[in-house]
Amino acid sequence: MRKIYLLFAMVFFMAGNVCSQNETSASDALNFKIDYEKFTLDNGLEVILHEDHSDPIVAVATMMHVGSNREKPGKTGFAHFFEHMSFNDSENVPVGANRKMIPEWGGSRNGGTWSDGTVYYEVVPKDAFEKILWIDSDRFGYMINTVTEAALEREKQVVKNEKRERVDNAPYGYTDEIIRKNLYPEGHPYNWTVIGQLPDLQSATLEDVKEFYNKYYGAANASLVIAGDIDIQETKELVKKWFGEIPSGPEVKALEPMPVKLNKTKSLYFEDNFAKLPELRMVYPTVEDYHKDMYALRILGQLLSGSKKSPLYQTVVEEGKLAPDIGTYQSSSELAGEFIFRVRANANTDLDSVKLAIEKGLERFEKNGVSEKELKRIKAELETQLYQGVSTVLNKAFQLVQDNEFKGDPGYLGTTAKLTNAVTAEDVMRVYNKYIKGNNFVMTSVVPKGETELAVEGSEKAEVWIEEVKNDVASEEVSQGEEAEYEKTPSKYDRSEPEFGDLPLFRSPEIWTAELKNGMEVYGITNNEIPLVEFEISIPGGQMLDPDGKAGVASLLGDLMMQGTAKRTPAELEEAIGLLGARINMYSSNEDFRITGTCLSKNFNETMKLVQEIILEPRWDKAEYERLKKALETNLKGQEANPRAIASKVFYKLLYGPQHSFGIPGSGTLETSEAISMEDLKAYYAKLSPENASFHIAGSIEKERVEKVLGDLAEKWEQEAPGLQKDEIAALGEPGTLYFVDVPDAKQSVILIGKLVLSEKNEDANKLVFANEILGGGSSGKLFQTLRIEKGYTYGAYSGVSENLEVSPFYITTSVRANATLSSLEIIEEMVENYAEDFGPEEVKLTQDKLLKENTRAFESLSAKLGILRDMSKYDKSEDFIEDMQEELMNMDEEDFKEVIRKYLGEDEMIYVVVGDKATQFEEVKKLGKPVIELDIHAEKIIEDSKE
């Protein structure tokens, strides 16, 4: 289920924030708005245009005011299914072009359905702007005549695979269904899930599709937003041409809010085949989106559990030691809302104890009330979130189209900011007393299979329909089928494909550099579009410096160093960061230890003071260390039931061997984490050196200011860098061998295929990335087009090359329906075997055009700009390395591509990992003809008991 949560950031500004001259004032932040122009076509389509020339790209978002709330029992999942159908064919666009051509133009595209609406969106280089209007309008107004029975059946399989991947094969995947069935009465539009039930989906007919389209897909039931590098007047004329003839459609009457009230509390339990940890949720019915109480309820969620000072964090996590975390939040939809308590507890934890701890925390909240300082913290954090929420043209488009379609005002963001800013402590207590205290709720206890004793006492068994795995692939085989026969809808315009506009080429941003006296290099990009900065300190080492047998030290150290300083308790540090509206984090990757941050540019000085304090004055809090170790154990235990996590763990252990740091997950294993001590963390901390480190920063800030702020850190942080010893690769996996891991009753098989190829510093690194694009570089790749579009076996299939200093793998990844495991493996095997031979002049041109154009939008965000700086510092790349890559790509000919493919992508050199249901698939995969070895979830061989 592709579900878009268009709950955009609400912002407030508090007078207590630090503010220097010539920077954003309180009134500027509170009155923030996105400039736009709105008009309505004769057919009722409301159009919002936003002009932004910062990058040569355009975002288009079409929002239909129809979601699963318009469905009927027995026809559930139809709005989402129709979204899928819309991406197939249309009258004036070639078959399959929607999913294939847009990526080939250098763009990205997708859609999303939720309870109340459906959105279709694209981001493309400026030269493809009119092409997007052509393809988008044709999908909107001219697709229904092209729908065939074959297309219907093919897309059913895709959606069924999506449900299997995201619901049936995922821990806690059924919880949403249980809650909806019990929170909302039969007949209420929220009684069923967005993705619906598979039997309902299977029974959908061609007549159903046409009826749904004709009823809800009129122009008057939609909003269209275009944001980016456009000319307003020219765009108006283009919109009238491409969208003006779409029929208005019948009137779709607005649904009035339908809040619910429970006459009793309902407690249910469910044994989850994939869960390793017990989870408790408590869901209270509240108010719909845009209701005046929604804003106070959202703040209530933050106050109850959003910090170390919050009462539920204290009672559940710190005092009870029952879980690594707790979440409370308000979720509002068009017709009703929910306030949710969610705790994924430690292994073997009785959920009755979790419930009691929540009740204790609520009593504490009632007694102590709302802290004004906590309100200030939340408001400061939301100010930063506002700018992050509109930092790209696509995010701006989403904000404008959401508020227009559901509130009738594209500029409602400013009103939202003011309404939230006006929330008082009294408002928060009022909504708590009105919607939470003493009210009935739905409670779910989802427990691992066979551990029903962990469920809340008195819970009733939840009823869930679960698909039976059948090893009958033929019954679900689909094909492209015949194209529909129809007469084209007449138009006064030529609706054939328009030409490209002028090609916009990527130009590297201006990059400045500096070096601090302690040896740390500084790389920066100044970008003044929004008053934000993102930064990071990258220190070589990362997981590679973990002691032998103690994988996870670097990762755990990153967590612990954020738990206070010598001067501040964990709660005081969290509060200090929050009051600046900043975010600071530490984590370890394969080869680097990183300190990252985001803040308003006006607060950079104060934020860096906290970063310096964190780095130079660690607290070494024993209680936090014990809590984090327990949380790590809980998280690692949870991963043992996730088929994707299992596949990844096994794959990398087979490629690198158990002694190489890359062969073990960065967070370690249950065994290695148990061996870690506080002294191990202190020893690793002593190796954190600025000598070979790099500081990267992008945003609204100048070089001089950055150097000045970092000067004090450079004076006080001096440490000789440790030597980095390269691990020896001792692969366990045999080329050409298939390794199978059993997850009983899995509805899908996770497939990971690959081999070690090269380091990012290898002269062929770029060439291999280029050569992979046709195979699996997105929805236009052969893997996706064959396994999903043609066969309907999967929701997605991709391939890629990992980027590290160490020799890294090429990989192919997908999750296919269980009974299509063998067929999928055969297709992938043949595709890789023939890839070099099949790569011709057409593939060369397609690769060059696609990747060249992708660069126009690939570096729009601040985080993407940080990525440029990281590549420069880590891999010794030049300031204009992206332009160099473009030149390298354009100089490659057909034989260059073939040579790279033959050199690195030999199918017989790859290992195959399949994680799925042994009872139905183990004998099947043997038919592939490769040696098959069964492993457990830790990549250890399973030896069958011998029988005499």
TrEMBL record:
Keywords: Hydrolase, Metalloprotease, Protease, Signal, Zinc. InterPro entries: Metalloenz_LuxS/M16, Pept_M16_N, Peptidase_M16, Peptidase_M16_C. The keyword Hydrolase applies. Residues 473-500 are annotated as: Disordered. It holds the Pfam family Peptidase_M16. GO terms for molecular function: metal ion binding; metallopeptidase activity. Residues 47-171, 533-649 form the Peptidase M16 N-terminal domain. Residues 204-382, 676-850 form the Peptidase M16 C-terminal domain. It comes from the Bacteria. Transmembrane segments: none annotated. Residues 1-20 form the signal peptide. GO terms for biological process: proteolysis. Residues 486-498 have a biased composition (Basic and acidic residues). The keyword Signal applies. Belongs to the peptidase M16 family. PANTHER family: NARDILYSIN (PTHR43690), NON-CATALYTIC MEMBER OF PEPTIDASE SUBFAMILY M16B-RELATED (PTHR43690:SF35). This is Insulinase family protein. It comes from Christiangramia aestuarii.
